[in-house]
């Protein structure tokens, strides 16, 4: 019997299905796991990108520091090379000036002898200019230059010979080497001299590898072989001599 004035709602009974519940729960679990995996992957990707950006910035910073240091090193090397070259130039200039001073002192002694009223062994005032030696590219090879000059005002030619000997040390023992053995340009022990004012002797010489030069002995004789030497002197071997770098 129906009650008057109330609304009737029909009811439907659904049968209980454990399989449907299981499928629904599995779907929910699957969606949760997919969301978790996606979040983990996104986290890893973000962390990787962040690390990569950080490392890239560090690498760029290190490259900038390295480039700066390389530039500084190049500047230091250039500065050091300039300093070495400047020091070497000053050393060479000092040695050249010393050689010129010694040549001037030799000339002064000759002039004093010319002005002396006593009998002169060097009446024409034969003297030597600056003795120059420069290293060549090949080890122990040198170029040499020496001027023999007449300081007297007499209008006569000088004819004679000169002996040129390099004195030094080899294996701890003194050794004398005539220029004839060292230079292909010199073919005789007594080098011919024939000049009115001066004569320049120049060429190349090759020293033994274990020979240490110290001095050069110069002896000038007139054309008369029986006459005593006109000039006999000893010159220092230039201290700047060495093989080029």
Task: Describe this protein's structure.
- This protein has 245 residues and is an alpha+beta fold.
- The protein has a domain at 122-236: Immunoglobulin-like (Sandwich), CATH 2.60.40.
- Helix content is 42%, strand content 28%.
- The chain has two helices and nine strands.
- The strands form two sheets. Strands 4, 5, 6, 8 and 9 form a five-stranded antiparallel sheet that branches. Strands 1, 2, 3 and 7 form a four-stranded antiparallel sheet that branches.
- A hairpin with a 5-residue loop joins strand 2 (132-135) and strand 3 (141-150).
The percent range for strand residues is 25-35%
Give the helix proportion (percent range).
Answer: 40-55%
Describe the main β-sheet briefly.
5 strands, antiparallel
CATH architecture of the domain at 122-236: Sandwich
CATH topology of the domain at 122-236: Immunoglobulin-like
Structural class of the secondary structure composition? Answer: alpha+beta
Element string (H = helix, E = strand): HEEEEEHEEEE
Q: Specify the number of helices.
A: 2
Give the C-alpha Rg.
50 Å
Note the overall shape.
rod-shaped
Note poorly predicted spans.
none
Query: Mean pLDDT, as a whole number?
Result: 76
Q: How many individual β-strands?
A: 9
Regarding CATH, which class of the domain at 122-236? Mainly Beta
Q: Distance N terminus to C terminus?
A: 129 Å
Quick tags:
245 residues, alpha+beta, Immunoglobulin-like, four-stranded antiparallel beta sheet, 2 helices, rod-shaped
Structural topology:
Layout: H1 18-115, E1 126-128, E2 132-135, E3 141-150, E4 158-170, E5 173-178, H2 179-182, E6 190-195, E7 198-206, E8 211-222, E9 231-236
Antiparallel strand pairs: 1-3, 2-3, 3-7, 4-5, 4-6, 4-8, 8-9
